[in-house]
Amino acid sequence: MLSLNSSLMIITDLDGSLLDHHDYNWDAASEWLARLKQHQIPLVICSSKTAAEIIPLQKKLGIVGAPFIAENGARVVLGGEYTPPIETSASYHALCQTLQALQARFRFNGFHEFSDAEVARFTGLTLAEASQSRLREASEVVLWRDDEQRLPEFRAALAEHNLALTQGGRFWHVMPAGTGKGIALADIQQHLAAQEGEARTTIGLGDGPNDVPMLERVDYAVVIKGFSKTPVELQRTDTENVYHTAHVGPQGWREGLDYFLAPNE
């Protein structure tokens, strides 16, 4: 087991991992969150959520100023004070224009086509949270309504515009090519190692296919049992450093840390 007194960093997905897939609570993880804070172990959020969603969540979790990864790695904040946007960015509008052109060939809808109330209805978010989820900077959430067999064709069409497609726990996400949770984590690791003079041992927790690049990069990976049709499959050979949970959501999150970390320090 790893010691809480060692130089650790926890990287976590949110929906379906630290947060319950249905009601977004994290009660089952509370004890571990308090323990991590007590031992000053950084908790890095690595999510498909927007910066506008993550900032208030950091306040609730007591980790204001910590680095975080938003929009599946399309947005990286290295720490310190950060003010989320009050409106969507120009690069996001350009991305949406590209997607609108592709709707002539494929059947799908993006978050930009819906109202806050509509997003709240199909996600279970509050109206305020739905509004924050639509304050996007670099990626778009896509509801795929076409034949699944056409996804490779859609992926190829996106690549012609230097865009990539990744699958989350519930939705598809379109983002700039060359971005992702693994690349974003590498940026944060490099930044912190330069600040602290050493590399921290990393434990990553995630439940969806979009978490794979992050789970491949961390030293210890917790694959939380999820709801995605596509299983989370890692190519790692160090299987002793990978744990698959029996529980979902924050219960699985707690189970994963119980497995790798000594609890009584």
CATH topology tier name of the largest domain: Rossmann fold
Q: What is the residue-averaged pLDDT?
A: 93
Amino-to-carboxy terminus distance: 12 Å
Estimate the strand proportion.
Answer: 15-25%
Q: Largest sheet at a glance?
A: 7 strands, mixed
Total number of domains: 2
- Discrete helix count: 9
Low-confidence stretches: none
CATH H-level name of the largest domain... which superfamily? HAD superfamily/HAD-like
Question: Structural class of the helices, strands and pairings?
Answer: alpha/beta
Strand arrangement within the widest β-sheet reads 4-3-2-1-9-10-11
According to CATH, what is the class of the largest domain? Answer: Alpha Beta
- Classify the helix fraction into a percent range: 25-40%
Cα-atom Rg, whole angstroms? 18 Å
* Topology pattern, helix = H, strand = E: EHEHEEHEHHEHEEHEHEEH
Q: Estimate the global geometry from the Cα principal axes.
A: globular
> What would you say the CATH architecture of the largest domain is?
3-Layer(aba) Sandwich
Number of extended strands: 11
Description of the structure:
The chain is α/β, with parallel strands linked by helices and 265 residues long. The chain has two domains: 8-83 and 180-260, Rossmann fold; 90-176, 2-Layer Sandwich (Threonyl-tRNA Synthetase, Chain A, domain 2), CATH 3.30.980.20. Helix content is 34%, strand content 20%. It has nine helices and eleven strands. It has helices at residues 30-38, 51-61, 90-102, 116-123, 127-133, 151-159, 181-196, 212-217, 249-260; strands spanning 8-12, 43-46, 68-70, 75-77, 108-110, 140-144, 163-167, 172-176, 201-206, 220-225, 242-248. Strands 4-3-2-1-9-10-11 form a seven-stranded mixed beta sheet, sandwiched between helices. A four-stranded antiparallel beta sheet has the order 5-6-8-7. A hairpin with a 4-residue loop joins strand 7 and strand 8. Helix 4 (116-123) packs across helix 5 (127-133). The chain is globular, with a radius of gyration of 18 Å. The relative contact order is 0.19. The mean pLDDT is 93.
